[in-house]
Write a structure and sequence with these properties.
Rossmann fold; three-stranded parallel beta sheet; about 140 residues
């Protein structure tokens, strides 16, 4: 799971991936730069009973030697960076970063809930397409 700063998008995706695969896959989340996980992302994910507050922050440079099966990116910057990672990896690109920049009447909580729900749907679809089992909930 790769996004620009590993503070919102990839932690949410990693949380759902770990939830649905429950130990059946080795998952790493990272960012091009690293920031603390956004407290609002933690709060919104807890509404779905998923705790992302404890997720490890891996340096991207520490992961470059791993020959991943899949690399999932969540914004344009991370898609560009993914081309420098192991070439055997199958790369999937999702674009959720623009949702974070929405400037409308919705509250920030609602923007994050919308983002969470779209990431949840994307991760469930990805797992159903590429893995044999998925935890329901």
């Amino acid at each position: 799971m790769l996004c620009s700063d590993n503070s919102v998008l990839s932690p949410m995706a990693e949380g759902y991936f770990r939830h649905y695969k429950q130990g059946d896959a080795e998952v790493y989340g990272t960012g091009i730069t690293l920031k603390k996980i956004d407290p609002l992302a933690v709060k919104i994910m807890q509404e779905d009973k998923i705790d992302i507050s404890h997720l490890d922050h891996h340096k991207l440079s520490d992961l470059r030697h791993i020959d991943f099966d899949y690399i999932l990116t969540f914004d344009a910057d991370s898609e560009a960076e993914s081309h420098h990672l192991p070439s055997k990896s199958v790369k999937y690109h999702f674009y959720f970063d623009k949702l974070l920049m929405m400037d409308n009447a919705e509250s920030t909580d609602e923007i994050f809930r919308n983002l969470r729900n779209q990431i949840k749907k994307a991760i469930r679809s990805f797992i159903k397409e590429h893995f044999t089992n998925i935890q329901e909930s």
